[in-house]
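Final report, Chapter 2: Outcomes

The project's central promise was a pipeline that accepts a single protein chain and returns its three-dimensional structure in a standardized token representation, suitable for archiving and comparison. That pipeline is now operational. To close this chapter, we reproduce one record exactly as it appears in the project archive, with the input sequence first and the structure output second.
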Amino acid sequence: MRLRTILLGGLGVGVVVVIAAVVVLSSMDFGKYKGLLVERVEQATGRKLAIAGNLKLSLFPVPGLTVKEVSFANADWGSRPEMAKLGELSAHVELLPLIFGGKLDITGLLLKDVDLLLETDGKGHGNWEFGALAPAQTGSPAEAAAQRTSAFEMPSFDNIQLQNVLVAYRDGRTGKTTTATLTELSTSGSFSGPMQVKAAAIVQGIPVRTTVTVGALATLTSRGQPYPIQAEIDVAGAMVTLNGSASDPLAGRGLNGKVTADGPDLAAVGALIGASLPAKPYHLAATLSGDAGRTIVLKALQGSLGASAFSGEATIVLSGPRPKVVATLNAPRVDLTEFRMAKPGAKPTDDDHVFSPAPLPLEALRAADADVTLSVGALKTERLTLQNLTAHVTLDDRDLRIRPFGVDLAGSHVTGGIELSGRQAPATLALDLDGKQVDVGKLLALVSGQNLLEATGDVAVAVRGAGDSVHAIATSLDGTSSLVVGRGVIKSRYADLIGADVFREAFAWAQGRKNTRLNCLVSHFDIQKGIATSRGMLMDTDAVSMLGEGTVDLGSERLDIELTPRPKDASLLNLATPIDIGGTFEHPTVQPNKAAVAKQVAVGVASVLNPLIVVGSLVLDNTGGRNKNPCVAALEGGKSSAKQNEGGVSGAVKDLGRAIDRIFK
């Protein structure tokens, strides 16, 4: 009886003490602690914390603390006074573990109406960097990391909810702002077991839904074992999945897993990131390993976009001044026609330029560096398909080089290099092309859709220019272009292309002919400040020899070429009419030169020996060697003792201008 009384008395005293504590705690004004909290935060961060609302304590059904109208100051250079504003924060904790064990066990956490601004200044410094939180580091980086981990004890979370959270990121260098609204976030699971996080957000006006499953939060800071991470992100119709682990998830170290991305429309993703992308289905998959902020390695990389596909491997280096991509990629097929992105409301016009005056996206050269070895089986463009393309592409601080590259074009292998540098204004371009025995007829058919010629030849182009658009670069070009074609056939279809009336008037000497045998064709242009001037243009067929001269203005895209035909039958000389090729690249014109007829043809031209007849005979009789082009041999003087050709285009066009002058003067 006495023991029962003691127990009841002790219990009564305990109840009274608890009730008294509840009454005391409930009646306390926690608002007086706001000043202490503000002071501690400012000491730790160097920023001011303002709490306009009251601190309120609730004990039932679970002890909790609520605070409202909180703001945290931005950096001195920030675009607005506050870095973060919080409408309400409510936290519920287990009281006994806190009293007896000193461990913080949060059974519920609610954040509402959060406005967070993350931004950088012009030098890339973030407003989330607090100088006061960066103590001097002692020991090795590994020891410092271990010290940070041992000093940090993760509180227990069982239920977290975030509502109406606005996050904005402003790039101080570009002034561009990206916004995202987290409409809802909730967690399920326990602190000691797997936890699932579900979130819904609006990013740049596009809905995003995410489900993430992670390991026990109790092991989040543990070392020596992989921490599992699974994620599914549904954004802009795309499904992105991640299945893997991290040895140090808080630091983003020891990442290992597989990532995939699939979607029906890449243009929707482009709207999310502010880029214009093609509206085609896409797929991407790779195994991922490495450390965030340092190096990420992608193996078994596979991707597709519409009819295009690629595979390979890549390494992304993130520790330098710019991200750098080092990759080896193989693509059986790339269809560039699917990458064409029409601007809304844009309509083609008759005065569109071949060389676009639109500014080149040179700013894109600042985004990253690259070293990519590329191999493409078939590259489809608007007018032709290139085969077996190989290229070494490097990008180093706005200096883009595609050198060397090679491609099978019109039955031959073309090699060369391209260099585009955006380090200075205006940008500079260098282009070199060299093709041996190119099927000129097939190339002409691919470009024009007309089967006009059967012939092969050597092509060489070497040009340099500067400008911030293709048109500006073309206007400034300096360099040379050369074409040396051997024997072939000119199709009668050529007459239909020119026009029946023009053909009858300008080519009266060729009436009744079908296909014409081509003996040779040589063309050489010198280019200065966007003006290409003919330094040698000669074509010889079984019926006529033809000399060409004139200019091509790459800036205005206008043609000014005169072709002077001379039939090899002297009785037809009075029918030979010079031909003017004019107009623009988009709308060329071909017509007889009436003035030349009056001045040159009518005044007894048939009474003199046509020098081109001599050229024709030299062409047909040339025995200058198997590699000697007949037109080149003729233009070099027609001497049987002419030295052997050096081979290729460089030898074929050497002193071509002087040779033509010697023949026709």
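Archive annotation: The radius of gyration is 39 Å.
This record, like all others produced under the grant, will remain available to the consortium after the project formally closes.
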